[in-house]
């Protein structure tokens, strides 16, 4: 893969929007007055959702380095700061609009510049129209309301999406949810600067079910949003040497095997078998003991991040290859350190290597990365051996592919399944997964047969068990797990992508990884130019269908530059981009497939989805797929967040002071007001720099030099102007400038 990363592009878009606004490099009506002192410094005000969006791709310093004096949360108590402008970087939610209007009403800042992370609904827009005069120009729209997770992987952090889309009791939520998904998908396209051709998965006749039109409707919503954005931004998309991109919209029903099978590449296997957690802030962590067996041992949540090169370089490798690579890298370390002469990593267990690393305090950086991944690899392999996953996966692969290890039609499959269900070493959850896979393979069983298999596997022993519901509820995704009777005639269901057994090479080492997710087959056919247009139609059919299918050598219509202009550019800049969206959640095997196709076919394939699905999460959702909506605790059914009451509290009046009369010069009058502007010259938010036609102009230079906690006296006339919000003394201002910029409110530290 080249160095392109949607994390970087997402962060770049956010920082650039804030930079332009902070430097007043935005389009707004000309102002006749010169800039106010201290105008270069602004406060950035964000809400909780906007903070999460920023945190997913931007470091705090990247923002503070662009004339941002402070970062504040709009929901929290904040000081009134009438001497500074504010940049509001906000998500378009009703309670956030309430918070914003409260700020405007109380003139919390001098002026307000507003940037929305997504389209503001019309009802909220009308509420803001009354506050136009309080804004320093029209609001900006920056479509970044998604969370880049890897260089080519995006999620919306919405694990409830699956239930909203497929639970029959949520039908009235689907239309609005699809519009929300469409808006976020377009945000991904805009961030990538792509206006793609939109195609979608249309299930074949035998797989039609209530939700089978989901992809079609979502694709049309996306096309509408794209057209709307292109009308609004005439220069979109910008000129490029790349062929026009393609957006493929699919959903979970296209491949029900992928979230049920055991996958043995490192990332997928780790997320399936280990207690890896995704925190509310999006961090993915693994809990382990650091420096185990030493006095410095401690429990710690280790984060799996893109900057961890060991993780990034190994996560899509088969676990066998991952362990070989870890061993090989450690052998290099042994060779380079004579203290370990005579050791051989290939004759040393993973546990031995971990123990050796624990005793190397001088190699902290290497210790952190390798201790994490050696621990994860060892624990995953322990589970693999303890629960006989090799035997289990062999049968799973046969059922999922319809072929045995010799790529022939399998025999005695039921006997193999029953033998594993009888085995006490096979975990109950794995038995349930095996029964679900077998039901999909058989394309239906009578109810009594499913019950027998569940009892045979020591499942469904209690009346309130929902194990059988897991199997039966697959029908909501287009499967046919049940038959009315044994005599019901069903035509064999052809596979969506028939395997080409002629080119298959038998490899015993990877016999447990013969299955490939449907997403990979879809992408392979797209790159080859033969993706079936009846299964994956266009929203807007191309004028020349033949030319549209030939993607390998397609010339770009977006670039007017001559060919020689790009002769010296990196090849990666001309790689066509393909965006895959999987509604209802994507698996880690599908993420791996996107990276592999990118590498093989010289494309940039990006996977976007509502959330990542593990086998455990998939089974849990299937259990309640037909449950009453009131039991689901969906975010949309919870009480909506409200603006905090303290935002609407009237500020306490200043204490009465009695001072001797002063001469009515402008400077003396300014001091008599305790450091504020004269009443007739108060500058409200969004009033721009428009001043009354009469009366003296306030001493704004003196105002800029005052601290909010000053009484308005001593520092007002100083020639040295400290940074806004710092001490009024020159020495104090310089000292503060060397420290961390203002309060670290990304971490909510005071």
From TrEMBL:
Family of the protein in this entry: Belongs to the STXBP/unc-18/SEC1 family.
InterPro entries hit by this protein: Sec-1-like_dom1, Sec-1-like_dom3a, Sec1-like, Sec1-like_dom2, Sec1-like_sf
Biased composition (Pro residues): 651-663
Protein name: Protein transport protein sec1
Record organism: Achaetomium macrosporum
GO BP term, pick one: vesicle-mediated transport
Region (Disordered): 633-750
Bias-annotated ranges (Basic and acidic residues): 732-742
């Amino acid at each position: 893969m080249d160095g392109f990363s949607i994390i970087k592009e997402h962060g770049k878009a956010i920082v650039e929007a804030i930079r332009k606004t902070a430097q007043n490099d935005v389009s707004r009506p000309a102002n006749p007055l010169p800039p106010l002192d201290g105008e270069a410094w602004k406060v950035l005000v964000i809400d909780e959702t906007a903070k999460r969006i920023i945190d997913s791709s931007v470091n705090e310093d990247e923002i503070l380095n662009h004339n941002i004096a402070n970062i504040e949360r709009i929901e929290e108590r904040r000081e009134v700061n009438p001497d500074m402008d504010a940049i509001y970087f906000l998500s378009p939610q009703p309670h956030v609009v309430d918070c914003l209007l409260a700020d405007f009403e109380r003139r919390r800042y001098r002026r307000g510049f507003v940037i929305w992370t997504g389209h503001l609904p019309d009802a909220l827009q009308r509420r803001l129209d009354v506050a136009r005069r309080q804004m320093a120009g029209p609001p900006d729209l920056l479509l970044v309301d998604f969370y880049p997770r890897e260089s080519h992987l995006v999620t919306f952090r919405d694990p409830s999406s699956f239930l909203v889309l497929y639970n029959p009791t949520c039908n009235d939520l689907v239309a609005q949810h699809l519009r929300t998904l469409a808006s976020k998908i377009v945000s991904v396209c805009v961030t990538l600067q792509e206006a793609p051709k939109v195609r979608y998965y249309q299930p074949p006749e035998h797989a039609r079910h209530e939700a089978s039109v989901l992809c079609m409707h979502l694709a049309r919503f996306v096309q509408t949003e794209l057209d709307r954005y292109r009308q609004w931004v005439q220069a979109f998309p910008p000129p490029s040497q790349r062929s026009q991109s393609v957006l493929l919209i699919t959903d979970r029903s296209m491949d029900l095997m992928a979230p049920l099978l055991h996958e043995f590449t490192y990332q997928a296997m780790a997320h399936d078998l280990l207690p890896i957690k995704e925190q509310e802030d999006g961090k993915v962590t693994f809990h382990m003991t650091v420096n185990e067996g030493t006095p410095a041992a401690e429990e710690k949540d280790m984060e799996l991040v893109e900057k961890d090169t060991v993780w990034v370089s190994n996560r899509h490798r088969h676990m066998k290859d991952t362990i070989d690579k870890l061993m090989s890298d450690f052998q290099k370390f042994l060779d380079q350190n004579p203290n370990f002469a005579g050791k051989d990593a290939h004759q040393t267990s993973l546990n031995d290597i971990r123990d050796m690393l624990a005793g190397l305090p001088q190699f902290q950086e290497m210790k952190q990365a390798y201790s994490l991944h050696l621990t994860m690899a060892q624990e995953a392999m322990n589970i693999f051996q303890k629960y006989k996953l090799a035997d289990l996966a062999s049968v799973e692969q046969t059922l999922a592919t319809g072929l045995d290890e010799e790529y022939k039609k399998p025999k005695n499959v039921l006997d193999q399944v029953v033998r594993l269900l009888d085995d006490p070493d096979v975990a109950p959850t794995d038995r349930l997964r095996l029964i679900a896979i077998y039901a999909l393979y058989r394309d239906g069983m009578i109810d009594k047969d499913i019950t027998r298999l569940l009892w045979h596997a020591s499942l469904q022993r209690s009346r309130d068990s929902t194990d059988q519901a897991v199997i039966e509820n697959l029908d909501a995704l287009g499967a046919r797990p049940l038959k009315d009777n044994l005599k019901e005639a069903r035509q064999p269901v052809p596979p969506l992508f028939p395997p080409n057994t002629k080119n298959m090479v038998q490899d015993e080492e990877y016999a447990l990884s013969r299955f490939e997710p449907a997403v990979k087959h879809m992408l392979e056919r797209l790159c080859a130019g033969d993706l079936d247009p009846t299964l994956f139609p266009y929203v807007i059919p191309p004028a020349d269908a033949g030319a549209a299918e030939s993607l390998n050598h397609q010339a770009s219509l977006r670039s007017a530059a001559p060919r020689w202009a790009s002769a010296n550019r990196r090849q990666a800049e001309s790689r066509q981009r393909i965006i895959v969206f999987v509604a209802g959640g994507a698996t880690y095997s599908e993420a791996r497939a996107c990276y592999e196709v990118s590498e093989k076919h010289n494309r940039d394939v990006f996977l976007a989805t509502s959330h990542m699905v593990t086998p455990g999460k998939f089974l849990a959702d299937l259990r309640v797929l037909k449950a009453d909506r009131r039991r689901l605790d969906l975010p949309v059914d919870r009480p909506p967040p409200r603006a905090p009451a303290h935002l609407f509290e009237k500020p306490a009046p200043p204490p009465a002071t009695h001072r001797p009369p002063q001469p009515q010069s402008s400077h003396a009058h300014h001091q008599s007001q305790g450091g504020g502007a004269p009443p007739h010259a108060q500058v409200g938010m969004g009033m721009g720099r428009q001043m009354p036609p009469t009366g003296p102009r306030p001493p704004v230079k003196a105002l800029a030099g005052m601290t909010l906690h000053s009484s308005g006296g001593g520092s007002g006339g100083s020639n040295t102007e400290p940074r806004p919000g710092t001490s009024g003394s020159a020495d104090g201002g310089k000292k503060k400038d060397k420290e961390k910029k203002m309060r670290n409110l990304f971490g909510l530290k005071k």
